[in-house]
Amino acid sequence: MATLSAHASPPWPNSNFTPNSNPNPNSVPDHSQTLDFDSLMPSQPHSPPLHTVTALPDSSPAAPPPPPPSLLHLSFNQDHSCFSAATNNGFHIYNCDPFRELFRREFDGGGIGYVEMLFRCNILALVGGGSHPQYPPNKVMIWDDHQGRCIGELSFRAAVRGVRLRRDRIIVVLEQKIFVYNFADLKLMHQIETVTNPKGLCAVSQLSDSLVLACPGLHKGQIRVEHYAQKKTKFISAHDSRIVCFALTLDGQLTATASCKGTLIRIFDTDHGTLLQEVRRGANAAEIYSLAFSSTAQWLAVSSDKGTVHVFSLKVNSSAPEPEKSQSSSNSDAATTLSGSSRSFIKFKGVLPKYFNSEWSVAQFHLQEGSHYTVAFGLQKNTVIILGMDGSFYRCQFDPGHGGEMTQLEYHNFLQPETAL
């Protein structure tokens, strides 16, 4: 069971944190930007934080640059406009477009294993990690960067595996249980039992009028979807094997799932649990690291340990017929390359392996095999952002009509001091 300890006087602060904001978080349009990190002020001397906080260091030619920190976790915020890096001595926040470091908070030897942003506002969720955790790994610390300190915490009997935030909810993921809290007063709203979930898999919609939560079910290969507005639970038998990755669209109406085999990605309607589309990453087994829908649900990006990021066209988006034609063209090209003629597959259907008839990706980008990469779609049209646990930041562009290898537009190593602006 979770226990709560608040470091701030009631009432609990509003998660929107905009001047003169409406106290109801659901009244704020989800596509809006709340308080920009550029306007954040450092901690005031009269309000000491719970631990030492160090802002970005001033340039000093006399002092040698510090060694780069060790990355423990990377994650995008809800609209993919920013990303956070949890390290062995704090956390860093970066803007994606244009790329630049917004700020960092460094603690004296204390590691942060997980950072969850709330769009662009000053509230973050922190979980300690690394060899010397700044906070106990069984606690979620609510950090207010205006005050430069933690204003509350949620304590559990087991290690926290993940945290998800909405403007109105805090979702905490343990290895076999998920807790859903109301953000305004931290009241526990729901508990969910899951199959063993060491990766902390969980996804939540972000539209104010559509609260949908997806998590592992109680059986291997099963996804559980909670439609809170409709007070409905849907179980989807997505795969025969263990699920290792899944994602939700912003409205929660679609989910993409991948199993430990890593060859097929399936897209389901979360309302009825209907399989809408199946795409193939490859013929050989792989570990899927991340799945990401575009904001319009027209595209799906996939990263794996094979070092290739794939972009698939989604037929479930009926408002975008042209990309579907591009996907069909791309699939035919792939078939022609493999057999010499796309029509030959029709003749030998049922004889050749199933993957010859699969839907293949429209575009790809090749990286170092074995490294861990996280993907999201950029704010610019037809762009993909790729984050690597080696500190790499890539912005790539794909051609929706011709497909093929993506064009690299930008690269940075965000762990190097010279890239911090």
Automatic annotation (TrEMBL):
The lineage of its organism: Eukaryota, Viridiplantae, Streptophyta, Embryophyta, Tracheophyta. SMART domains: WD40 (SM00320). Residues 29-44 have a biased composition (Polar residues). Residues 14-27 have a biased composition (Low complexity). It is found in: Preautophagosomal structure membrane. Residues 1-71, 319-338 are annotated as: Disordered. Keywords: Repeat, WD repeat. Pfam families: PROPPIN. PANTHER family: WD-REPEAT PROTEIN INTERACTING WITH PHOSPHOINOSIDES WIPI -RELATED. Its main location: membrane. InterPro entries: PROPPIN (IPR048720), WD40/YVTN_repeat-like_dom_sf (IPR015943), WD40_repeat_dom_sf (IPR036322), WD40_rpt (IPR001680). This is Autophagy-related protein 18a. It is a peripheral membrane protein. SUPFAM superfamilies: WD40 repeat-like. Belongs to the WD repeat PROPPIN family. One of its GO terms (cellular component) is phagophore assembly site membrane.
